[in-house]
């Protein structure tokens, strides 16, 4: 028997199955894996189709009106920070930054959190060294533990169910927040988003919209494919091609214009406004060279994409003390280059995708964190270094000021 909300053909016809999928965990316990997949298949979707349609309309409207988009949150969510209290704190930061941007730019700002499912991380290295010990890398709480040991780093399929359950708590709090938003319309969010990385997890949460019968990804409003998993023809892109959600795609500095056109064709074959969000993350040294030919090609091909700058992921450096960090000056430089390039090519620079913590962390250098020594005060990220809210405010103010000047 099919669980409610799943029709036989969506569970049996999965166009991504059998395709290569990069960055997948090597689950060990097959019986437990099977059980976890069954649990997810029969669970209710985390977000309803109607909300996904609403976000698509909002993004289409953004393109029509030159409104703005702000996507922000942790690099990796923690399973231990999904309580209503933690979520309220994160939503407060989203409100603060979204309101500041809206006030300075004088425009509507649609808000999207990297939350309610951001539990899986792609890694450049599959293992890391701890003294003489070589252990698997941390891959996010959906897969393994950040604690450094050979056993704690084994992928555990039960974690997919724990991530689902934690996400239900976060999504419930976000929904209540959207409805109680006061003067701000519900359509402006905050909506949820995460990198759709673990194909086992995501594919079990594909559902059919009861009103239109179309398949949608019920794990989040706005899933994205990362720089390491955006190959057309492979599982991640095939999966997001098969659902009607708005979808994001990261673009790193080595992507060619042809690479990007191919992924646009796969994700947005009908050239629908509000469907595709392209997120360049090139690095402040490389963006001026790498981005313009891509923007020109996408515009010429007629894809009405939302352009969102990620000034974080191309600017990660190792500090002298061995901690991963980012310099706020580099982050601001890339954000401003991004906006200038888009505006120079008469395209809409819709906003920023940034990693920001709800706590007052010291993970990036800039503002109150003056130097590398300052990083050690409160460095708690599970993965990449995040801005604190003050540093993110400085970035947003620089962005909004530049927008004004360039239009004056
Ligand atoms: C991320 O957003 O945390 C991430 C891993 O990004 P990218 O795919 O751009 O490296
Ligand atoms: Co990150």
From TrEMBL:
Highest rank taxon of the organism: Bacteria
Enzyme class: transferase
Pathway assignment: Metabolic intermediate biosynthesis; chorismate biosynthesis; chorismate from D-erythrose 4-phosphate and phosphoenolpyruvate: step 1/7
Record-listed phosphoenolpyruvate binding positions: 114, 227-228, 250, 281
Family annotation (PANTHER family): PHOSPHO-2-DEHYDRO-3-DEOXYHEPTONATE ALDOLASE (PTHR21337:SF0), PHOSPHO-2-DEHYDRO-3-DEOXYHEPTONATE ALDOLASE 1, 2 (PTHR21337)
Family: Belongs to the class-II DAHP synthase family.
Protein name: Phospho-2-dehydro-3-deoxyheptonate aldolase
Native species: Streptomyces carminius
Taxonomic classification: Bacteria, Bacillati, Actinomycetota, Actinomycetes, Kitasatosporales
């Amino acid at each position: 028997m099919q669980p409610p909300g799943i029709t036989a053909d969506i569970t049996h016809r999965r166009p991504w199955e059998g395709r290569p999928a990069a960055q997948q965990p090597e689950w060990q316990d097959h019986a437990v894996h099977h059980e976890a997949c069954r649990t997810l298949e029969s669970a209710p979707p985390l977000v309803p189709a109607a909300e996904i349609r609403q976000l698509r309309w909002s993004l289409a409207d953004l393109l029509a009106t030159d409104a703005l988009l702000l996507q922000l949150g942790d690099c990796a969510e923690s399973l231990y920070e999904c309580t209503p209290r933690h979520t309220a704190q994160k939503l407060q930061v989203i409100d603060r930054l979204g309101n500041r941007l809206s006030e300075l730019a004088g425009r509507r700002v649609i808000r999207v959190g990297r939350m309610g499912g951001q539990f899986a991380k792609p890694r450049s290295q599959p293992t890391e060294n701890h003294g003489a010990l070589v252990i698997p890398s941390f891959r996010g709480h959906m897969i393994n533990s950040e604690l450094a040991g050979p056993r704690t780093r084994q992928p555990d399929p039960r974690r997919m169910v724990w991530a689902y359950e934690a996400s239900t708590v976060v999504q419930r709090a976000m929904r209540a927040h959207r409805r109680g938003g006061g003067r701000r319309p519900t359509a402006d969010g905050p909506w949820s988003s995460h990198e759709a990385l673990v194909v086992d997890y995501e594919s079990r949460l594909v559902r059919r919209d009861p009103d239109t019968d179309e398949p949608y990804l019920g794990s989040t409003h706005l899933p994205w494919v990362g720089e390491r998993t955006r190959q057309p023809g492979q599982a991640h892109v095939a999966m997001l091609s098969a659902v009607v959600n708005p979808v994001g795609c990261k673009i790193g500095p080595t992507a060619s214009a042809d690479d990007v056109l191919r992924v646009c064709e796969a994700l947005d074959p009908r050239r629908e406004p509000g469907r595709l969000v392209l997120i360049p993350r090139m690095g402040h040294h490389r963006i001026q060279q790498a981005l313009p030919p891509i923007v020109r090609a996408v515009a010429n091909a007629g894809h009405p994409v939302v352009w969102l700058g990620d000034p974080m992921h191309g600017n990660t450096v190792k500090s002298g003390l061995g901690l991963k960090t980012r310099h706020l000056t580099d982050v601001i430089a890339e954000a401003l280059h991004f906006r200038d390039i888009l505006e120079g090519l008469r395209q809409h620079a819709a906003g920023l995708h940034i990693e920001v913590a709800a706590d007052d962390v010291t993970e990036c250098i800039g503002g109150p964190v003056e130097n590398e020594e300052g990083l050690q005060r409160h460095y708690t990220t599970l993965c990449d270094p995040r801005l604190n809210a003050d540093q993110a405010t400085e970035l947003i103010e620089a962005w909004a000021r530049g927008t004004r000047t360039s239009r004056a």
